[in-house]
Amino acid sequence: MLRFFLLAAIFFAAVYFGIRMAQRRGSGNAGGKSAPRRPLGPDDDPDFLRGLGN
Fold it and tell me: Can you tell me the distance from the alpha carbon of 35 to that of 38, in angstroms, rounded to the nearest whole number?
């Protein structure tokens, strides 16, 4: 009986790690690089700030 639980634990661990690796490989975020840039607000836009001085 102990052998059954040991084999089941090994099987489920292999399935879990296999799914995790497949999710990492399939995601568009290659290697956990930086998140997509957020849009700039008008107070962060250099052209907008330059236009205020005119």
Answer: 9
31: left (phi over 0), alpha (psi -120 to 50) or beta: left
C-alpha 10, offset from chain centre: 27
- Cα–Cα distance for residue pair 50/44, rounded to 1 Å: 11
Cβ(43)–Cβ(49) below 8 Å: yes
Tokens encoding 12? 């489920």
The amino acid at 29: N
**Six-digit token pair at 28?**
């568009």
pLDDT tens-digit series, residues 5-31: 999 999 999 999 999 998 887 765 555
pTM (global) more than 0.70: no
